[in-house]
Design brief:
Length: 225
């Protein structure tokens, strides 16, 4: 690249507002907003009608956990899709630049997929402006670094899957106990839902279970944010 062409490219980069790239694509929203509320409310109302207030309280607690887990799962899937889209966009940027596409036009073409990686793209553009390095090469390095970071996150997720499974196993342990008590004609459901000591025990157990899940989730976020 000649000196004049390099100066023209730098002027184009200065005029380009990279923050606009992230503004072009609004953040993804999780669908089914009404269902997230309507279904738990219906479950709580049904439990309260059939078994009374203690059942309604337990249904509210466990419905809240179920909603949080499902929304978290959908959010993680959406983040994974967005990450792959961003990586493909960065790779496409490098390919477009090597094909001779002007920098502003290449960035405009990739803007829909760059929302998650605008800071890295901005750093690459600034570095190219300061040093005169080829943007295509810098974008290749950005893509390689991002993919390496993604692989590290995937490894951490697989290594912590056992901890998550243990938490859910402990969450489900009361179910076999209730089944065994029912098979022995002890009627544990009546004891838990319609006696004072049983109700206190059931609510306390539910709160402890939820607290344990929250603690596990917090510890996992510290290891693999």
């Amino acid at each position: 690249m000649s000196l004049a062409a390099r100066h023209r490219a730098r002027r184009r980069l200065k005029r380009l507002n990279l923050s606009e790239l992230s503004a072009q694509r609004p953040p993804a929203r999780l669908g089914g907003g009404l269902a997230w509320v309507a279904v738990p409310v219906a479950v709580v109302a049904l439990a309260g009608t059939v078994e009374g207030p203690v059942a309604a309280a337990l249904a509210a607690l466990y419905s809240g956990v179920a909603v949080a887990v499902l929304r978290g799962h959908r959010r993680r899937r959406a983040a994974l899709v967005a990450r792959e889209r961003s990586l493909d966009a960065v790779a496409g940027l490098a390919a477009d630049l090597r094909a001779g596409l002007p920098v502003p036009q290449a960035l405009a073409t990739a803007r829909d997929g760059l929302a998650g990686e605008v800071p890295a793209v901005a750093v690459a553009c600034a570095l190219s402006e300061r040093t005169g390095a080829q943007l295509a090469d810098l974008f290749d390095r950005v893509e390689a670094q991002l993919r390496a970071a993604g692989r590290v996150r995937d490894v951490l997720a697989s290594q912590t899957a056992g901890v998550r499974a243990s938490g859910w196993l402990l969450m489900l342990l009361p179910v076999p106990g209730i089944a065994v008590g029912t098979s022995m004609n002890a009627d544990p459901v009546h004891v838990l839902l319609h006696t004072r000591i049983g109700a206190l025990s059931a609510v306390a157990a539910a709160l402890l279970q939820i607290g344990g899940l929250l603690l596990i989730a917090r510890l996992l976020r510290m290891v693999a944010p």
